[in-house]
Amino acid sequence: MMNKKTNISFSEIIFDKSIYPRFQIDRKRVDIFIENIKDGMKFEPVEVEEHPEKAGKFRIIDGVHRWSAYKAIGTEKIDVIIIDLKGDSPLLYSASRAIGPKQLLEAEAKETARTVYRNNPQISIATISKSIGRSTRTVVRYISDLKAVFEQEVDIKIYHMIQLGIPQQRVSYILDIPQRTLSNRIGKLSEMTKPIKADLVKGFSVSQIAEKYNCRESMILSIMSENKDDIEIFKSLKWGLRTWDYWYWSNCDDRFGDDWPGRIPAQLIGHILFFFSKQRDLVIDPMGGGGVTSDTCLVFNRKCWSFDLSDNKDKRPEIEKYYWDINNLKWPVAGKIKPDIIIFDPPYFDKKSDVYDSKSISNLSADDYMRFLKKFCLLLNQNSKKGTRFAFINADWRNFQSTSALNESNENAILIDDYLRIIKDAGWQRTHIIQAPLSSERFNAGVVTAMQKKRILGVTSRYVIISFKK
Fold it and tell me: What is the reported pLDDT for 411?
């Protein structure tokens, strides 16, 4: 912790109630300080830290009553010590400094402990205890309900990751849990699912149970799917099973995945799994997005290792952050483990590029987009085993905007022929081309009328190209 003593203007100091451990400022204490200042008494400088969100500003972490007194008498500048807390909780620091002449009230100590724990459930009970001047037993009593909720949330994350076949070493690293502790918790996961199974028997709905346990519906569905074969799972989900090479759904199933740019129907992933994989097969999902593939794999009893550019560790730790660098493509899965099937649903060229991360391949030029796909499909092949299936999902891109079909040029278009050529050149043997129209692409009546007048032919095509490694 580094300290720097200086003199700054009052306009640079902010009183942030969120890091003040007391419920209110004691006006009597402020009045006493005012009288003392007028009598010429000198006090320790107020302690501040740089404001984390407002450049050039500071917020008080000790000395609110002194600051209030100086402000009341019109002082323009004040002596301060700028404290660097090195990531420690400013609220706890303020609480530790408030123990002096007037300790925190019981309610203030309790609320401080609960706020600090909510902000950082990994913090030790001893640290909170020392800072607020209460015993560890008292702190445990303060936060017992919060701790129970947090532990349940961690167990749910562990359940998801273990059911998806993610190695314990990776789970331990991602969740920052010692491996021995993780092993003990894994051994108790069956106890966690017992009350869920009991609620299912009692007739509670999947959504009701998910809300009760603060988990995703896919977890409840996966528990329901235990010991069921794929056809039974389809029936329980009330999904029709398409047995032809045309897969269309008017909507995405909201029970699977998050609201995400370019979200695809879980029904599509379910069909890929049904026709081209077996239960307990390993699925690699290199661009996991909102988690549709991992959720579907969870319900259909497949292993799934997912990666994505976006960091969503708190909400979806089963999707590991990974950046596929076009200039230095590397395979993130160490060891000799090879996938049984790869489901590759990349951001489509130029579609929704305004809502994707700036590093998304959707923002590349058409040439660079195709260059990436060429190198990436080759990388996938090099890290697969003989017989690995490859499901590539993408759509035609034509620059049809404001151009009649008769006058369209395919000079800059990206079509299924291009994808097929890339896949073949990368060493994959194509077996199926399945039509799966974009359910999200709908045109209102006004747009349709305008397109008709100009003879514009829009794009709702999408293909699932299935190949295997020879």
Answer: 78
Helix (H, G, I), strand (E, B) or coil at 259: coil
3-class secondary structure per residue, 9-58: EHHHEECCHHHCCCCCCCHHHHHHHHHHHHCCCCCCCEEEEECCCCCCCE
User: What is residue 355's predicted lDDT score, i.e. its pLDDT?
Assistant: 58
Provide the H-helix boundaries in 164-262.
168-175, 179-186, 189-201, 206-213, 217-224, 230-237
**Which two three-digit tokens encode residue 179?**
């491996």
| Separation CA 303–CA 338 (nearest Å) | 12
Give SS3 for 99: coil
The pLDDT of residue 454 is above 60: yes
Neighbours of 229 (CB within 10 A): 10
pLDDT score at 356: 62
b/e burial code for range 35-73 (CB count within 10 A of at least 16 → b): eebeeeeeeebbbbbeeeeeeebbbbbbbbbbbbbbbee
Judge whether 394 and 348 are in contact, CB under 8 Å. yes
pTM of this structure: 0.83
Cβ atoms of 48 and 6 within 8 Å: the answer is no
Q: Which two tokens stand for residue 142?
A: 């303060």
- Full DSSP string of 312-340: -TTT-TTEEE----TTS------SS---S
Flag whether pLDDT at 334 surpasses 90.
no
Determine the distance from the C-alpha atom of residue 141 to the mean position of all C-alpha atoms in its chain, rounded to a whole number.
31
d(CA 234, CA 292): 16
Convert the pLDDT of each residue in 19-35 to its tens digit: 999 999 999 999 999 99
Question: Which pLDDT does position 441 carry in this prediction?
Answer: 62
Residue 447 confidence (pLDDT): 86
Phi, psi angles (nearest 5°) of residue 4? -140, 115
Q: CB under 8 Å to 157, separation ≥6 — which residues? A: 175, 317, 318
Instruction: Please say if the pLDDT value at position 353 is more than 60.
Output: no
The pLDDT of residue 301 is: 98
Cα distances (angstroms) measured from residue 39 to each of 30, 36, 46, 80: 14, 5, 19, 21
- Relative to beta strand 303-308, strand 282-285 is parallel
24: left (phi over 0), alpha (psi -120 to 50) or beta: beta
181-226 pLDDT, tens digit each:
999 999 999 999 999 999 999 999 999 999 999 999 999 999 999 9
List all residues 6 or more positions away from 198 whose beta carbon is below 8 Å from its beta carbon: none
Which structure tokens are listed for 326? 């076009």
Number of neighbouring beta carbons within 10 Å of residue 365: 11
